[in-house]
Design goal:
alpha/beta, Rossmann fold, six-stranded mixed beta sheet, 17 helices
Length: about 550
């Protein structure tokens, strides 16, 4: 059947879209329209298929069936954006400007200027004048200032924008990519967890931007404040079906709660009637011929009721029962660091950092975006070498590292294989471990590359548990987690007696962790934790 034509005002139209992940249908017959000014929040439990649906709409991973028609320019932010190797050497500001192709336009203009200097022919003059006029009309001369303004709003320090992209931290690269998408001025925005790695000021800037955005927006986010501030409509993904709710996230929560209560009652009544009729049919089945015919009639009624029966709604999230086992005993002094420094070709990220960590201590690393928190953790984890300085680990230390970019999760490799690589335990024990982290049953055999962002976070944490480490290096371990899962992880780590060195913007998580000391970056000042610092966590 021919699809209906796109309406004049529609910016995105999804028609009968079906999406599969690891052979399982996660979206079925999805049909909806986004018009200019529509700001849609896509919600549902971790692993429901939200990220997969955005990928299908963007064209990154075409759907199994159906199609998405987009009118105008599309801006798409994946949950884990990968910047192409071909642009890793360009500066952050140049990458942002490339969102409107103005980097290439500037290069063409410069080539024409050089050609004009070499030979001032009428042809060269005309070519340069035409290119210069187009460049001016496209906003080329104000582009860098605009790019820096957007990046500043997203919390990228001005001096970091002049560094090559491959010298930036994972969080900085993500913010630069988000700035590039926003700078491009797209007609349709598909944003997957856009507030990851943003501090409070950057979140406030982002909310203001989205509230004023005039195009069509669809966003996946666990940032409930963002959804309440900027969203006018919700699409709830549940058992492969999209259900629409009008209004803010708060309106949706109230309406969804009422729907779940209504459907649960209806499902209960239907199942009770099915059981009653089935029991009645069974009681007649082996009696007189007349009663046997009545039993067959009742069987037909039971089947019709089953066909029409509603299914009680699932809980919005899988419940995690995370537990970190007692760690092996380490020496009294776990780590000593002396004179650590890191440079990436420009100004030093940090210099002369010195500190020590004792057994069972919890050290929180704080500092503004770009202060070198992730760079320091990568040095401690042995992923990169410091420019200067040295560190030494104590006796009996086993280090587990949680990278915010999920570097330890390999596409094409099964979930179970990831935890088996960290442990000599049997498959059943490891599958039980995965179940405790919200990855039960057939998740064990799923390609880890097909997991959602929240599921990858859970797998990475399960890997740490499987490794039985006594020192954990945690870089934003709560990103992509739904609120119940975040609470479960915070509670589990709060009770764990091992040593932790942590980077986190999440105030609730830090509060539950109760750090002993704080290392302020890039200065390297070491001090005892005080609850008064909690207000700075989201800014750091």
């Amino acid at each position: 059947m021919e699809a209906a034509p796109l309406s004049i005002t529609a910016m995105l139209r999804a028609q009968e879209i079906e999406v599969e992940v690891a052979g399982k249908t996660v979206v079925e017959c999805a049909t909806f329209t986004l018009q200019p000014g529509d700001k849609v929040g896509l919600v549902g439990r971790n692993g429901a298929g939200k990220t997969s649906l955005l990928r299908a709409l963007s064209g990154e991973a075409p759907p199994v069936a159906g199609r998405a028609v987009i009118k105008g320019e599309l801006g798409y932010l994946p949950q884990d954006p990968r910047i192409r190797a071909s642009v890793a050497h360009v500066t952050g500001v140049t990458h942002i400007v490339s969102g409107r192709g103005l980097d290439e336009a500037a290069l063409r203009l410069e080539k024409l200027r050089l050609a004009l200097e070499e030979r001032a022919s009428n042809t060269n003059v005309a070519r340069f004048a035409h290119a210069e006029e187009n460049y001016r009309f496209a906003g080329g001369y104000s582009a860098e200032a605009q790019a820096r303004s957007i990046a500043s709003g997203l919390g990228v320090p001005a001096d970091r924008l002049d560094l090559p992209i491959d010298a930036l931290s994972g969080g900085e690269r993500r913010r630069v990519e988000l700035a590039r998408i926003l700078f491009a001025g797209s007609d349709v925005l598909l944003l997957d967890e856009p507030t990851n790695h943003l501090d409070n000021d950057a979140r406030a800037w982002m909310m203001k931007f989205l509230k004023g955005y005039r195009g069509a927006l669809m966003v996946v986010s666990h940032d409930l404040l963002l959804l309440d501030e900027a969203i006018t409509r919700i699409l709830h993904l549940d058992r492969a079906e999209l259900i629409e709710y009008r209004g803010t996230y708060s309106h949706y929560r109230a309406a969804r709660k009422a729907d779940e209560a209504r459907l649960a009652k209806l499902s209960g009544r239907q199942q009770a009637e099915i059981r009653r009729l089935k029991d009645l049919a069974d009681s007649m089945r082996h009696q007189t011929e007349k009663r046997a015919r009545i039993a067959k009639t009742l069987d037909s009624r039971v089947q019709k009721l089953k066909d029409r029966a509603v299914t009680a709604p699932q809980s919005s999230e899988r419940v995690m029962r995370a537990r970190f086992p007692e760690p092996p005993r380490a020496g009294k002094v776990v780590l000593k660091a002396h004179g650590l420094a890191q440079h990436y070709g420009g100004p030093p990220v940090f210099e002369d950092i010195a500190f020590d960590v004792g057994r069972g201590e919890r050290l929180l690393i704080m500092g503004l975006n770009g202060a070198g928190k992730t760079s320091l953790l990568r040095i401690l984890a042995g992923r990169t070498a410091p420019t200067a300085g040295a560190l030494s680990w104590g006796a009996g230390v086993s280090v587990g590292y949680y990278a915010q970019e999920h570097e330890g999760i390999e596409p094409g490799r099964a979930v179970l294989a990831h935890v088996k690589a960290q442990s000599g335990a049997g498959d059943q024990q490891l599958r039980s471990l995965l179940g405790g982290f919200g990855l039960p049953g057939e998740f064990a055999f799923q390609d880890a590359g097909t997991l959602s962002g929240g599921e990858k976070t859970k797998l990475a944490l399960a890997q740490l548990v499987a490794g039985r480490h006594n020192v954990l290096l945690l870089d934003e371990p709560t990103n992509n987690l739904d609120p119940p899962s975040l609470e479960a992880v915070a509670a589990a780590l709060g009770e764990w007696p091992g040593t932790m060195i942590v980077v986190s913007h999440d105030t609730a998580f830090v509060s539950a962790l109760e750090p002993d000391r704080v290392l302020m970056m890039p200065e390297g000042d070491l001090d005892y934790w005080d609850e008064g610092l909690l207000g700075l966590v989201a800014l750091a």
